[in-house]
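Continuing from yesterday's entry. The apo prediction looked reasonable, so today I'm repeating it with flavin mononucleotide included to see how the binding region is handled. Same sequence as before; SMILES copied from the compound registry.
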Amino acid sequence: MKTRITELFDIKHPIIQGGMHFVGLAELASAVSNAGGLGLITGLTQRTPGDLSAEIARCRAMTDQPFGVNLTFLPSVNPPDYPGYIQAILDGGVKIVETAGNNPQKWLPALKEAGVKVIHKCTSVRHSLKAEAIGCDAVSVDGFECGGHPGEDDVPNFILLPRAAEELKIPFVASGGMADARSLIAAMALGADGMNMGTRFMATVEAPIHDNVKQALVAASELDTRLVMRPLRNTERVLVNAGVERLLEKERTLGAAMKFEDIIAEVAGVYPAIMQRGEMDAGAWSCGMVAGLIRDIPTCRELIDRIMAEAQVLIRQRLEGMLAD
Ligand SMILES: Cc1cc2nc3c(=O)[nH]c(=O)nc-3n(C[C@H](O)[C@H](O)[C@H](O)COP(=O)(O)O)c2cc1C
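Holo prediction written out below.
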């Protein structure tokens, strides 16, 4: 397939692996890129810019295909060393960056000057338009279904994607709820030039996470995610577990008075416990409703090849077959 996204990033297939904390390491990013998609290393999972440089080098040793780095800009009391991470990206010769969270405007001049293509993840049309106005090359439009932070507007992709298509001039990929060829073709019908998958890529052979997590995704249904932290206006979609039930109970009892400190036990340090040690009740970790569509743990190449083969069948047989003569 040739789309504005495959052209922009010089990739074979219009499929991106979104940044994922403690999941987006070199093993996964290189496997996705080797399979013809765009793999992304998650910048902030690396504790220092020096660690990110080493991870970029490790990824480069595993693939000669384009890959990128995700940089997430979160509100924080002690912000990470963003200038250092940007320098590591530039020094590592990475040419694609996925930004997410706050407006990346401050960091764009350095990236653009070095010829880096920037795709910003947005959960609304107004933020997507802002990304276009400040010079981003593309947008990842993240619907309400998505794993992670869906924002506070709660607009699902069946509305959000065509709305984005009505307004945006730069290309965008559909993100949130994407799992297979049906997702890809539907997203393209709604105006996207490709798709971004998070949760689906966790259930792959190469995802460098504990097998308990992969099995939990296969076992989960579309009813098993919950929205947490809404009272803090930092809503996150997570897979339900005992830690998440505790967190939701605190939200119910504390109500609008809840502060971040009240839920620290259920959110801090959870990612290493879940992803590395497989302690499935440790607390809140991002997971999309798309878990209900995950039934196996293929390699990234098997997954992407299957999507692209089934996409052809969908277009040539199912859709064309519906056209009356
Ligand atoms: C475990 C996990 C961790 C994530 N961590 C990040 C992150 O650190 N930064 C970010 O921009 N997005 C993060 N995301 C969001 C994904 O990049 C992607 O936008 C989202 O998963 C798309 O929805 P889907 O899960 O339905 O495919 C994370 C998602 C998951 C499932």
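Comparison notes:
- Residues 300-321 form the longest helix (22 residues).
- The pocket of flavin mononucleotide is lined by residues 18-21, 23, 42, 70, 72, 100, 121, 142, 145-148, 175-178, 196-200, 285-288, 290 (CB under 6 Å).
Will overlay with the apo model tomorrow.
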